[in-house]
Amino acid sequence: MVDEHHAVLPDAAVQAWLVPGRRDGVYVDATFGRGGHSRRLLQALDAQARLVVFDKDAAAIRVAHALQQEDGRVTVVHGGFGGLAEALAAHGIDAIDGILFDLGVSSPQLDDAARGFSFMREGPLDMRMDTREGPTAAQWLHTADLDEIKEVIAAYGEERFAFKIAKAIVARRESGPLRTTRELAELVAGAVGTREKGQHPATRSFQAIRIHINRELAELAHALAAVLSLLATGGRLAVISFHSLEDRMVKQFIAAAARPGAALARLPIAEKDMPPPLLRALGRIRPDAQECQRNPRARSAVLRVAERTAAPLRPGDVQAVVARLGLPAPLRPVRRRGGRGR
Ligand SMILES: C[S@@+](CC[C@H](N)C(=O)[O-])C[C@H]1O[C@@H](n2cnc3c(N)ncnc32)[C@H](O)[C@@H]1O
Q1: Would 315 be classed as within a structural domain?
Q2: 26 and 49 Cβ atoms separated by less than 8 Å
Q3: Taking the CA of residue 5 as centre, how many other CA atoms within 13 Å lie in the half-sphere pointing to its CB?
Q4: pLDDT band at residue 2, thresholds of 50, 70 and 90?
């Protein structure tokens, strides 16, 4: 196994993340991976700067600790970026200049069959980024009810055949638990009616189950809310997403924070009394054809960048922005389900 991850959009991401004129600031890498982006940022930072790096994955954290040994500006947090504000507070940090999220799984995670992320490699059905906690995919698939499995596969996989797949999984359980990636991939392939060009029929279901097991979108929503309070004036938010659910959440978040008064637009409120923008969108960047050829993982990547304005946060601002995120069904506070007594 090659323990390597090619950082996506390396130059554009670092340019987006680093605030011009603040080479001595406090920066966060929310998804350290193998540190491709972090190393580049460190090259651009002054000796007084700080870089706090997060990852859920023990192998990523080993690499981060090795970097910390070499570079005293680095602080390592083994944990989810959902706990961003609390973890930074524990290190005495209540304001940051820039944060980068490079979402999803890394190449070493996909390449290691023992982690169970890939339907291409036979391995235990695990899929946890942080192997210290939570059920494995196999455990969840063995205990979740039909509705929950269907909802997760439909919402996080945007899979048309979610119900058929969930039914096949529940029926299969009667003859014993699903244990391996290939068992699941074959079961899903049997349940999916049509084939999408160039895509394995289990792609969407694997993505959905991984997102659910790692609470990926819940953590992202939580972290984005924290970023509004943490970013200093002029501070940068840079997010690289790899699928539409993540990108939609980031786009809606930036739009809601850039126009916090949009929900009030129809009310008779004078312009001067409208809440001021909290973020300014700085753009959306896609990798060019050359990068996609060199690094196929880059093909679906989208980098969005925003900058914190000088407007102070008022009570209720963060909640108002979060309320405008179009959360997928499993994350909505009140579930819309048919039937009596639910
Ligand atoms: C695409 S890789 C990042 C690669 C990195 N930018 C580099 O250049 O090497 C994503 C990493 O984020 C981690 N990760 C994903 N979601 C996370 C979360 N909610 N909290 C902390 N780490 C997370 C994964 O374990 C993985 O190592």
Answers
A1: no
A2: yes
A3: 26
A4: low
DSSP letter assigned to residue 194:
S
Q: Please name the residue whose Cα sits nearest to atom 2 of ligand 1.
A: 106
Nearest ligand 1 atom, CA 34: 9
Question: Could you say which DSSP state residue 180 is in?
Answer: B
**Cα 32 to ligand 1 centroid, rounded to whole Å:** 5
Q: 191 falls in which pLDDT band (50, 70, 90)?
A: very high
- pLDDT tens digits for range 106-123: 999 999 999 999 999 999
Q: Is the pLDDT of residue 334 over 90?
A: no
**Cα gap 236→97, rounded to integer Å:** 6
Q: Return phi, psi of residue 238, to 5°.
A: -130, 125
What is the 57 CA–ligand 1 centroid distance (Å)?
Answer: 8
Output 32 or 260, whichever has higher pLDDT: 32
- Pick from 39, 74, 99, 106 the residue to mutate for probing ligand 1's pocket: most ligand atoms within 8 Å of its CB: 106
**Domain match, 193 and 234 both:** no
Vertex 7: Cα angle to 114 and 99 (nearest 5): 105
Q: Cα separation of 49 and 51, whole Å?
A: 7
Domain co-membership, 230 together with 202: no
Does residue 263 surpass a pLDDT of 80? no
**In CATH, what number is assigned to the domain containing residue 151?**
1.10.150.170
Q: Which residues line ligand 1 (CB under 6 A)?
A: 5, 7, 31, 33-37, 54-57, 60, 80-82, 102, 104-106, 129, 219
Asked if residue 270 lies in contact with residue 132, where contact means CB atoms within 8 angstroms, the answer is no
**Number of structural domains the chain divides into:** 2
Spacing, Cα 33 to ligand 1 middle (Å): 5
